[in-house]
Amino acid sequence: MSRKAFYIGIFLASLAGGMLALGIFSVIVGNPNSQPSYNSISKHQEVALTSLEVKDIPDVIVPDGLNFVNAANKATKAVVHIKSKYEGVSSVNGFFRYRTIPSAAKGSGVIISDDGYIVTNYHVINGANSVEVTLHDNRRYEATVIGVDPTTDLALIKINETGLNFLPYGDSDKLQIGEWVLAVGNPFDLNSTVTAGIVSAKARNINILTDENRLEIESFIQTDAVVNPGNSGGALVDLTGNLVGVNTAIATQTGTYSGYSFAVPVTLVKKVMDDLLEFGVVQRGLLGVMIRDAALQSQIEDVDVLNGVYIITVNENSAAEEAELKSGDIIVGINGRQVKNTSELQELVARNRPGDEVEVTYIRDGIEKTVIARLRKFDGTTDVVDRPEIVIIEGATFKNNPESDSRKLGIYGGVKITDIQSGKWKEAGIKEGFIITKIDKTRVRNVNELRIILESKVGERINILGISVDGERTYYSMKW
Q1: What are phi and psi of 344, to 5 degrees?
Q2: Does domain 61-282 have CATH number 3.40.630.30?
Q3: What is the DSSP letter of 280?
Q4: 289-374 architecture in CATH?
């Protein structure tokens, strides 16, 4: 090669290299006064995506501990929408006529058997004139209330259908803090809504339930799964799709979800449902003690341990008295399960019926001891409570109105007064043979519902609606 040709080659190579460098700089920096448009970026991405073959996309494998699909599919088929309808009354010349209130309470429920039994919250159906259930496939049914338990905010209802998808009971005792769970329900009428969260705490007491005998049970599972109005009565499930709780409440200052939700543990749900199905009422076995968290009691006096339940007083003729438990004892276990606070103790005891024996582990004078206590009812007896057919309240005797008579009168259920002695009923002018169909807005289907309703009305003025012996619809008013 000649020297002249060599220099020409060097020049041409340098020129090409400079032009290439300028081109790359232009691509990287671009015009400092311009910005690539959204359309140009989208077009570039679209070309890139369409040129990618399916075989180039790797399979996504979700770890078992994060796979919600199967549990969600299982749960949504067994969670129902509940609409509780209410009616008011207005009087016309001493008689009454019905008027429909435009709004209705709405919530959720969980099918727990293939023949139509459904668990929900008591507050979802409380006082309803009728309860409508809508399945996930939009079939609708009128439900019958089998029984309620205000002390746990649970209720059992039933629809006339078979072959239904239902959720099997899981084991809430085995739930661990940090474990994934799903909340399934119908918030804001958004049917079959699934949200995920973790178990944030167990045995939470948030002081939302009240009972005149202080028998309310609050031992909630706390989660951060999103729950809103309409979720009440819906399912809390584990990742196998088994029922571990019934969603009941949220912690909120606005009325909507603010971070935490609370569910009744399924171990308690199962016991309450079994009682309502078999007896129509809940069988509550009690130790018969007044208690406080040992940690709280330690702020008043020295105690032997900080985790446990301090006995303040022992009731007379109670299971605790019979077992020789004393004031100052600290209960730390029931049936071999550790007890750290009052919520845990109440839940573990509430799983049992009157007459059942429980093993109580306690500490007295720094020494751990164990004793067997035979649980009793509130009145000190151990007999189970039969499904009531006749009750006596304030000098009047009530019995369930025969179904055949109710059909003839065009009413659903009802309670007949068969005898009236001196008392509030007689003073109100009510006669024997009067059939009570409602107390205020709340339908009375049987004597057990009558008793529960009246217990919640103490000190109030109430309207007793029904049918007189001559077949006239009328009402009476009295201070209860």
Answers
A1: -65, -40
A2: no
A3: S
A4: Roll (2.30)
Phi/psi of residue 274, each to 5°?
Answer: -60, -40
Q: What ranges do the domains of the chain cover? A: 3-56, 61-282, 289-374, 390-479
Tokens representing 29 are 């920096």
Nearest to 347 by CA among 148, 169, 175, 203: 203
Q: SS3 of 75, please?
A: helix
pLDDT at 42 over 60: no
Phi, psi of 72 (to 5 degrees): -65, -45
Lowest average pLDDT, out of 151-160, 311-320, 394-403, goes to 394-403
The residue annotated as part of the active site, out of 84, 172, 232, 261, is 232
Active-site option among 84, 108, 153, 200 = 153
The catalytically annotated residue of 123, 149, 172, 219 is: 123
Give the pLDDT mean for 255-262.
83
- Quick one: pLDDT at residue 51? 40
- 238, two tokens: 């584990």
Answer yes or no: 123 catalytic.
yes
- Torsion 424-430-431-433 (CA) sign: negative
Q: Is 153 a catalytic residue?
A: yes
183-196 tens-digit pLDDT: 999 998 888 899 99
CATH topology agreement for domains 61-282 and 390-479: no
- Each residue's pLDDT tens digit, 347-361: 999 999 999 999 999
Count of CA atoms in the C-beta half-sphere (13 A) of 165: 15
The DSSP 8-state label assigned to residue 188 in this structure reads G
Is the pLDDT confidence value at 25 over 70? no
CA-nearest of 302, 280, 245, 261 to 119 is: 245
Range list of β-strands (E), 365-447: 367-374, 390-393, 396-400, 415-420, 435-439, 442-443
User: Which amino acid, one-letter code, is at 450?
Assistant: L
CA distance 397 to 420: 6
Q: Rounded distance, CA 237 to CA 424, Å?
A: 48
Q: Could you read off the pLDDT of 47-75 as tens digits, one per residue?
A: 333 344 444 545 656 666 678 999 999 99
Pair of tokens at residue 332: 């730390």
Phi/psi of residue 47, nearest 5 degrees: -65, -40
- Tens digit of pLDDT for each residue in 136-169? 999 999 998 888 898 999 999 999 999 999 999 9
Q: Could you tell me the pTM of the whole model? A: 0.71
CATH 2.30.42.10 fits 390-479, yes or no: yes
The CB-side HSE value for 307 (13 A sphere, CA atoms) comes to: 5
Q: Is 44 annotated as catalytic?
A: no
Q: State the residue for tokens 């979700």.
A: 62
